[in-house]
Amino acid sequence: MSRGGIVRRPAGAGSGPWPDSIPPLLRRIYGARGALTEAQARPRLAHLLPPDGLLGLDAATTLLAEAISGDRHILVVGDFDCDGATACAVAVRGLRMLGARRVSHAVPNRAVHGYGLSPALVAELAPLQPDLLVTVDHGIACHPGIAAAKALGWKVLVTDHHLPGDTLPPADAIVDPSQPGDTFPSKVLAGVGVMFYVLLALRRRLLADGSLDGGSNGRGPDLSRLLDLVAVGTVADLVPLDANNRALVAAGLRQLRAGKGCAGLQALIEAAQRDPARLSASDIGFAIAPRLNAAGRLEDMAVGIECLLTDDMTQAREIATTLNRINTERRAVQQQMTDEAEQAFARVALDTSDVPLAACLFDPGWHPGVVGLVASKMKERLHRPAIAFAPSEPGGDMLRGSARSIPGFHIRDALATVDSRNPGLIERFGGHAMAAGLSLPLASLDAFQHAFRKCVELTLSPELLHLQIPSDGELAADEFTRHSADALRHGGPWGQGFPEPQFDGEFDVLGWRIVGQKHLKLELALAGRRVNAIHFGGWDQQEPPPRVRIAYRLEADDYRGGDAIQLVVVHREAA
């Protein structure tokens, strides 16, 4: 693998109509991300895009309004990841807020039903006899399942954000900003964001026709109470944080920091031992979302959804404890599978003159719920597209694969190319530029590996293999303060498309020690100022040189408290 190099982002415009409350450091960082005013850098709910432009919204709100007025049974079917779970909770809570009295929910079990609305899941749900089935965070590729639901006489509303295939499913209404003909300005809503927009449009429709009490302010129920869930699902799904998504996430974070989130999220924050008042988007991504996702990966996401729907804090804490335990098990399974994947890739690399351009790995003992995490780890460590496969069920002859890519290589398009050149090789696939999923027979694995690697060889530009670590430049000695760290923490939300600030510089190494067998704790000095640093996974069996160049994040050291700060190293090399 090509070693990474630090590349500085273009300097941002520091001048402009900034209020005094925004320090020069943040102004520079915002400018480097194209935000030149406070409104662009910190969009508020007042700047939220209106629902108009979302194709299918009129048909969707008609279905929902008729179901509510007719007291019909609405069944919300979620997905088994964090976006799908939060979208399900938003749909159930929101529909009840808007007057629906008969709302139930279901979620596929990864090991039993596979992804999305399948005919098997429809058959299992048939005794519930819903009048209207609503999919959240899936459905755009679930043609057989939707056809099965329609055959039972159910109305079907699809809310999704994934890319459609060549044809759309036979639903009664589809709301998906990625579908052809949709003019909604933002194409990067998460599944939970799409459902939230459907609820906004539904409330507007119900108020307009007089079937919903507007209350004292005339605006009806306060749907912003759902934004804690919207924030968690949006951050967890790694969609780009454009201005619209940042407005949604920032509002949700404000609720969570104020202790006004739903009971389940408050309990998960407690279980993750995070301070709600200091909660950030990265806390959601690395502490809250994994605990929800673990349920869908190893057991049943119904547990996670139940945590998000309960208003009983005692019950929420009990479920959060269960999710915490499952997440611990998930980490152990993931680590074992990642170690095995690295060993397997090392063997492949040793057997060839060149390191393969893509990692495509399978083990009959792997768990299908964790292959996405393994693919992510392999992609990060190798800086190559990676696909990890596991049996859909123990001893079965069908495989479930999860693919992750590097910037500049569209992994779903690559799978589409393989599919078009090899009809019937892949049973089904879907996803985004950076992440995708697929299923195929075990007997087709060797042919797929060959076809996929051939596609990568023909289409992957060699320059993309040179890992670049972006930096916002150097910090001055007087910027290594708790005030700067707090400003960066609360200057977000940071995430995909609006990256968390990283800096670089050369430091003297005053001391070092190994923590937890693989992490490196460093004591560094810059211009006479001492600062602590931690490089997670940074112990490479070699003593650090006396002077290093690092890329790092500046963070408040909450463990030590007070004015303490630390540098979180993301790249290290000899100066």
From TrEMBL:
Task: Cite the RecJ OB domain residue spans from the record.
Answer: 472-570
Q: Which family does it belong to?
A: Belongs to the RecJ family.
- Protein known as: Single-stranded-DNA-specific exonuclease RecJ
Q: Where is the DDH domain?
A: 73-234
NCBIfam families linked: recJ (TIGR00644)
Q: Does the keyword Ligase apply?
A: no
Superkingdom of this protein's organism = Bacteria
Please give the Gene Ontology molecular function terms for this protein. Answer: exonuclease activity
List the source organism. Novilysobacter avium
The gene designation is recJ
In the UniProt record, does the keyword Hydrolase occur? Answer: yes
Keywords (alphabetical) are: Exonuclease, Hydrolase, Nuclease
Which part of the chain is the DHHA1 domain? 359-457
